[in-house]
Amino acid sequence: MKRFLLLYASQRGQAQAIAEDISEKAVAYGFSADLHCISESHKYDLKTERAPLVVVVSTTGNGDPPDTARKFVKAIQDKTLPSDFLAHLWYGLLGLGDSEYTYFCNGGKIIDKRLQELGAQRFYDTGHADDCVGLELVVEPWINGLWAALAKHFLLSRGREEMNGTLTMASNASRRTDPVTPELLHIESQVGLLRLDDSRRKDAEVIEQNAVNRGQSNTLIADFEPSLIRSVPPLSQASLNIPALPPEYLQVHLEESFGQEESQAPVTSVDPVFHVPISKAVQLTMNDAIKTTLLIELDISKTDFSYQPGDAFNVICPNSDSEVQHLLQRLQLTDRREHCVILNIKADTKKKGATLPQHIPEKCSLHFLLTWCLEIRALPKKAFLRALVDHTGDGAEKRRLQELCSRQGAADYNRFVRDSRACLLDLLLAFPSCQPPLGLLLEHLPKLQPRPYSCASSSLFHPGKLHFIFNIVEFWSDTTAVALRKGVCTGWLAALVESVLQPNTHASRADGEKALAPEISISPRATNFFHLPNDPSVPIIMVGPGTGIAPFIGFLQHREKLREHHPDGHFGAMWLFFGCRHKDRDYLFREELRHFLKCGILTHLKVSFSRDAPVGEEEAPAKYVQDSIQRHSEQVARVLLQEDGHVYVCGDAKNMAKDVNDVLVEIISKEVGVEKLEAMKTLATLKEEKRYLQDIW
After folding, report:
1. What is the model's pTM?
2. Mean pLDDT in the chain?
3. Strand spans (E) along 326-479
4. pLDDT tens digits, residue range 65-103?
5. Do residues 152 and 169 lie in contact, with contact meaning Cβ atoms separated by under 8 Å?
6. Residue 65 CA to its chain's centroid (Å)
7. Backbone angles phi, psi at 465, to 5 degrees
């Protein structure tokens, strides 16, 4: 078999899952994938690597490569490396991103660009998969085309005589010298696939069934609207191409436990975990506000936890107890909820390099496992749906699951699973005859991730305390029955502080009292970059609507204390563009901001109200923060371009941050008198100089 190096850089497991899928499929095409996380630099060496390289890279909210790629990116960005450092290397890269964010697929683009600068050459065109419309729309054809691209590469580099019959699918492609496109190679790889023997043909399993077998007439089917559990023609009558069955690899035993104590924080992390009490909780919004915003104060005085204004930290949270109970009931495991979970790798598994999940602690109870270790709300991927098919008894239900994971059912998957935010429990309630073994769930449910929050205080202003704010996330789920769901972490925190919650009493300036609520577990974030300039005389512009104001409250508190300590110091101007819906319902930190403005800490405060109508003859107020920035374009341009100021943006990445970025481009273009492209380059330079910083989600 022909070996290629396969690296993945994953933040939440997407890139890793795709890379593992590539690794497993490679065997059927005569290739062997040497699979590693990109952070495992001791297991590979690009400087001496002669095999082709395949890289799958995700992107974080700020357009950066994931944390696991930090060391790799730092290493290849070494300016002392010669331009031919990787001239021997041929590679193909698949980037994952979301086009609703400003820097789409930027994690992959950063690595792709630098590999090119170091002389590496593409043997296969780069793919950019968009999570906004569904990663699989690009991922699946990109993977399908990869095999012929690899075949062509080996054919050109080592000679036709080394190629076996499996690689004849590249014979036409061998006449080309440019990187091959996924679209063309998808056709070639499918032709080549037809030449494989029966044992390999299973990898592209084709199921031909007809919905008429359900005993429903075409007329009756047409009367139905499609839903999670039901399709309509043409899908209901189509032949289906479904994914290969993922090999099962976990053997699970449930043993009676004998009262062992369990830690509340099973997360395996290099970061230290701190158990801290909640000393105060305040509701910042009025009861009639569209969203409820809470402030929580943590007492960190007895820990070594430290932070700077602008830092973020992780809250380790559990799944909803009621959802865990419902899942146990549905799996018929309620009576064994306290049993100890023993995991082993199946001796006869066909999964290459199968290992036990690191996020599952040894000998924990089943209840603990479902509560603290697994993301039971995770969006079920198509591979998971495919695996559930083989554990579903009813023919109609089996067919519908096949449709949802098929190529032909992509639109239904997006509508009824992805866009409806369906989770495992929804699927199990929708398909009663589906009885998956526990091991299958452990194979497909990802690790329950800690949730990041921005620090909303300064340790100089609140010694021994840490503040953070959040909206209680609420959304309607109507996959099986209409129900109001709350965010995993925000719903848990809100319930935790419900009995001690105070109304808005200018929380950020009040002193905390002794702990009123249970402890929660927190950990520092691996990367924190959203900091005030080292030179306090540098002017700054802060943009943070809604809870995006959090780090800026810390900035302002910090600046107030610095001015107290250095009364003769020179401090730069501080602009704040804040926005909310209604002046009288959700104007967060109103009194605190007035105080900072009165004291001269905050130089300019510009607030926009998106839902309030103008009163009388007054000029219509700015609706959104980007509108307010536009109205002060001359001053904004002066701060950024003439006074070497910094701009900070915090909040919603999909809409606000993108709109603010566009307005900044317009302002630079207008005030400097340059084309839009040149203005974009100027903004990109500010970002490279760490003068344009974003903390977005």
Report:
1. 0.82
2. 87
3. 340-345, 451-454, 465-471, 474-477
4. 888 999 999 999 999 999 999 999 999 999 999 887 777
5. no
6. 12
7. -125, 155
Q: Are 371 and 316 in contact (CB under 8 A)?
A: no
Label the pairing between strands 692-696 and 240-241.
unpaired
What is d(CA 623, CA 626) in angstroms, rounded to the nearest whole number?
8
Provide, rounded to the nearest whole percent, the portion of the chain with pLDDT above 70.
85
Give the alpha-carbon dihedral of 666, 668, 670, 674, to 10 degrees: -110
- Give the closest residue to 7 by CA, choosing from 48, 47, 50, 41: 41
Q: Which residues of 485-507 are buried (b: 16+ CB within 10 A; e: fewer)?
A: bbbbbbbbbbebbeeebeebeeb
- Categorize the per-residue pLDDT at 517 as very low, low, confident or very high, splitting at 50, 70 and 90: low
List residues bridging with 577 in a β-sheet: 543, 606
Task: Cite the beta strand spans of 581-682 per DSSP E.
Answer: 604-609, 646-651
* Residue 12 confidence (pLDDT) above 90: no
**Helix, strand, or coil here: 559?**
helix
Q: Looking at the predicted structure, is the pLDDT value of residue 204 above 70?
A: no
**Burial of 674: CB neighbours in 10 Å, binned 0-12, 13-18, 19+:** middle
CB 595 within 8 A of CB 624: no
Q: How far apart are CA 281 and CA 187, in angstroms?
A: 59
578 closest CA partner among 614, 610, 546, 550: 546
Pair 472, 291: CB distance under 8 Å: yes
The one-letter amino acid at 575? W
Region of residue 374 (phi > 0: left; psi between -120 and 50: alpha; otherwise: beta): beta
Give the SS3 label for residue 334: helix
The three-class DSSP label of residue 206 is: strand
Strand 31-37 to strand 2-9: parallel, antiparallel, or no bridges (unpaired)?
parallel
User: Which segments of 540-682 are extended strands (E)?
Assistant: 540-543, 574-580, 604-609, 646-651
